[in-house]
Amino acid sequence: MRDPGLPSLDQLRVFIAVIDHGGFAHAARALHRTQSVISYTIANLEEQLNIELLDRSRRKPTLTEAGKALLADARAVSAKVDDMRARAKALGAGLEAEVCLVVDVMFPMCRLVTVLEAFRREYPTVSLRLHTEALGAVTQMVLDGACQLGVSGMPVAMPDTIERQLAGHVAMMPVCAPHHPLAAIEGVVPTAVLREHLQLVVTDRSPLTRGQDFGVLGRSDWRLADLHSKHALLRGGLGWGSMPEAMIADDLAQGRLVRLRGQDGDSLQYPLFVIHRTDDQLGPAARWLKHQFLELDYTLPHGAY
């Protein structure tokens, strides 16, 4: 048995049209060709592949078992070529092939999903790389050129090569588990008392924030590399710390965490800045993303993160 030949894209699309339009005559009308040309093309495709794709024993041709399997492949090849042509057209018009985005770990995920869903609809040919980092690591990735665009949290010493615009704020709330000793204190918890208990802190390895503390009060603290670990340890009662209010709303409602009232208040506004290099001209897709983050409503319903 000889090996299958190499079918053309046109043959595959005619095969798809015959199935999608319900026969040779309907496919011929849809493709503006004669029925004999459609029939000849399918016969040639079967000859190329050395296999019968359609059962012609009935009035309406139906897929053979082999035809069913190869139809999925034909659709995949056709779709890939369409994607390639769309990407080539976009690149020719100056659109980026890829956008790399880095966001602060405190950024509300439900809002990020909303933005990226819209981005996918607006720029279906543009690939996206997403990173989440803490503190200065967001700025570092933009500064190093690893990402074109960033949404950074607490302001650090920004180099002159970074442009920064305030986008909004996230409410941060000090909390602990209900069985933690701090939970038994009614009213305002003195700062001196907070300092006596283990504080859980998210940190990073960026040289921009190395050796700097943001909101650290405890004489004893644990430095954690990610926010979800901090969340789990807080619920386990290992310490106290501040978390994005939206992320812990359900924990507060279910009694898994309790709110602490410190002398500086029971919440603080954590700023979020959109940043990019001043010497890096953003492409259309990155500019669109930047605008979305600047216009985003950061007010969240309870339980959303």
Automatic annotation (TrEMBL):
What name does this protein carry?
Answer: LysR family transcriptional regulator
Residues forming the HTH lysR-type domain are 7-64
**Which terms are listed as keywords in the entry?**
DNA-binding, Transcription, Transcription regulation
The regions listed as transmembrane in this protein's record are none
Q: Which SUPFAM superfamilies match?
A: Periplasmic binding protein-like II, Winged helix' DNA-binding domain
One molecular function GO term is: transcription cis-regulatory region binding
A Pfam family it matches = HTH_1
- Assigned protein family: Belongs to the LysR transcriptional regulatory family.
Organism of provenance: Pseudoduganella armeniaca
The organism's superkingdom is given as Bacteria
